[in-house]
Amino acid sequence: MVKIAFNTPTAVQKEEAQQDVEALGTCGWLGINERHTTQSAPGASTASTGAERNRRELRVATKEKEGSSGRCMLTLLGLSFILAGLIVGGACIYKYFMPKSTIYRGEMCFFDSEDPANSLQGEEPYFLPVTEEADIREDDNIAIIDVPVPSFSDSDPAAIIHDFEKGMTAYLDLLLGNCYLMPLNTSIVMTPKNLVELFGKLASGKYLPHTYVVREDLVAVEEIRDVSNLGIFIYQLCNNRKSFRLRRRDLLLGFNRRAIDKCWKIRHFPNEFIVETKICQE
């Protein structure tokens, strides 16, 4: 007996529905995977972009740091040069405006044969003291001598400059307020170096300060209107003062001795002896 079976509509529908569910599940799984892949890709790309950005920022920061270090080094180097220039310039200015000098003090005594007290026979010789201060500047080749008011003689206080660079001697009589200038007599005026040695001997007591007198007889022959060309030291001493040129009396031809009625003396020791400078003026 042959059985003929027919699928009922319900069974067919169930089978089709089951196939649809399986297909839907497969599509859904594929969709989920696709979405997961799609969502994961932007994250990975963002991470890669961030790492690249960090590397770039690191390189930029490194370059900026190197540039800042270079600028700091250049700034420090420039400041070092400026500081060195200020130090050297300050030293030069100090040397120019504050010349090296030393103040020396000394005293010598001399026997004045023209003094009536020394002309008496049997009397002990009377020695007159001469005291002075000397500002000796070897670098400038100059000696500035200050003769104070003497205690036991008839000479005038004075300021004296012996300028070996200019070859001039200037006497400023502090009582009269006048300057008197003449060529430097190197035969009786020691160089600054030798004067330093002389004052050193006087200070140590190694040199006997009893000596003799060398006399100069000078005449003021003409007034000097401008002393600016005689050197800075003589200019500072004699500027805005009446200044006169001195000549030795024995060199003046036809000189009228009777016309001289004003004479005074200045005593100082520019050597191992006393120099008495007698200045006369009409």
Automatic annotation (TrEMBL):
One of the record's GO molecular function terms: amyloid-beta binding
Boundaries of every BRICHOS domain copy: 152-246
Cellular compartments per GO CC: extracellular exosome; Golgi apparatus; plasma membrane
Residue span of region Disordered: 38-63
Pfam families, per database record: BRICHOS
Keyword Disulfide bond included in the entry's annotation: yes
Keywords associated with the record: Cell membrane, Disulfide bond, Glycoprotein, Membrane, Signal-anchor, Transmembrane, Transmembrane helix
Domain of life of the source: Eukaryota
Bilayer topology: Single-pass type II membrane protein
Compositional bias segments (type: Low complexity): 38-51
Subcellular locations according to the entry: Membrane
GO biological process: negative regulation of amyloid precursor protein biosynthetic process
Transmembrane segments: 73-97
Main localisation: membrane
SMART domains for this protein: BRICHOS
InterPro entries: BRICHOS_dom, ITM2
Ranges of biased composition (kind: Basic and acidic residues): 52-63
Family as reported in the entry's similarity comment: Belongs to the ITM2 family.
Name this polypeptide is given: Integral membrane protein 2
